[in-house]
Design a protein that fits this description.
It comes from Streptomyces alanosinicus. Its EC number is 1.13.11.-. Belongs to the carotenoid oxygenase family. One of its GO terms (biological process) is carotene catabolic process. This protein is mainly β. The chain has a domain at about 15-160: Lipocalin, CATH 2.40.128. Helices cover about 10% and strands about 30% of the residues. The protein contains two helices and 14 strands, in the order ββββββββββββββαα. It has helices at about 170-175, 195-209, and strands at about 15-20, 25, 35, 40-45, 60, 70-75, 80-85, 90-95, 110, 115-120, 125, 135, 145-150, 160-165. Strands 1-2-3-4 form a four-stranded antiparallel β-sheet, with no helix packed on it. It is globular and about 45 Å long.
Length: about 210
Amino acid sequence: MTEHGPDLTASTAGTHVIEHAGRLLALCEANYPFELDQDLETVGAYDFDGKLRTAMTAHPKEDPLTGELHFFGSSPFPPYLVYYVADAKGEIVHSAEVRGATASLKHDFAITRGHVVFVEGNVTFDPADHSGIPYAWSDRQPSRIGVMPRGEGRRPAHPLVLRRTGQHAARLQRLRGRPGAHRPGGPHRGPRGLPPLLELVDRRARARQ
């Protein structure tokens, strides 16, 4: 810890490793990424030339069409969720605090052609937990899916559309039952080639625009 909060440069960086824009980055979702050289020696904490203001998820998504890297930083303290986009050259060109997020644990997310999909589960920050990982299950924390338009280039921030996951359970079951919705040996897919959950949230979000 520092006087300004968690030390984002102190990390085991042992969750995931990616390569983007010529940089090899080791990731741990509670801290900055750590850059490695081609011999896998540590170069140091990497903050995208000062534009990364939070920790970085260990599960960023690279768009195969644009080369953009989409990722987020989450925290048990405000701002709870910040969404970032780095272009194919590795420069952060979009960042925005995601309004409506909570202190729940955010492990992963997804992107579609037009939207970003965040998931908030029932595990949330619990300062009374002294196990070393201050998160615990809470019945008062609803499981939710949040959808917002992708931030590309220098577009402004967009609002997050939140829905409780239980509201779509029956609809998802019908999607799974459609002919051709399941490919042998692969995941369920919908008409746009996405898993049915992402098909549904992407379609709902596009309908609101």
